[in-house]
Design a protein that fits this description.
six-stranded antiparallel beta sheet; 171 residues; single chain; alpha+beta
């Protein structure tokens, strides 16, 4: 089974939509590896702040099959696919990595380039996979986060209760 990291984000009823996505992922894939939840400013447009986290799952599904399942989960949470690319989102789930695979797989670029561009992806990924190396540049996510220009994007860890427990570890 492949270890797959997913990025989850929402700025529309974020608590409810992220929680529902996590339940759907756990119901579908079993135990989740879960980062802290971070609040971040909208990137690319003026809008409400997002809640973001990274979740690790294990699956033997192909990337295309996995993408269909993730889109179904997004749709159940009211994802408006006609909305502008940079705009409010009820739920966004992106495939970041699939083991150490590289390339365009079933029309999806792996690893996702947002890992190296956005703090709201890199910090939670570095939190749950600090020694895992980026499959293209060979640097550990923890090292990439240490070298990241943190002045570009502000992140704030937030208390997030899931299954009766605060999953945010960073204070």
């Amino acid at each position: 089974m492949a270890l797959i990291y997913l990025s989850l984000g929402s700025n529309v009823e974020a608590q409810r939509n992220i929680e529902a996505a996590m339940y759907a992922l756990a119901d579908t894939f079993g135990e989740l590896i879960i980062s802290s939840v971070y609040e971040s400013e909208a990137v690319g447009f003026d809008g409400d702040s997002f809640y973001n986290l990274v979740v690790g799952i294990h699956s033997d599904l192909g990337v295309g099959e996995l993408s269909k399942i993730l889109k179904t989960i997004e749709d159940r949470q009211g994802r408006d696919r006609s909305a502008p690319k940079f705009g409010a989102r009820s739920l966004d789930i992106d495939i970041l990595t699939v083991d150490d695979r590289v390339g365009v797989i079933d029309g999806i670029s792996i690893p996702r380039d947002e890992i190296l561009k956005n703090a709201f992806v890199l910090q939670p990924l570095a939190e749950i996979a600090p020694t895992t190396v980026h499959p293209q540049n060979g640097l550990a996510y923890q090292q990439l986060w240490q070298e990241f220009d943190k002045a570009k994007q502000n992140l704030f860890p937030i208390e997030f209760i899931w299954r009766g427990k605060n999953i945010t570890r960073v204070t």
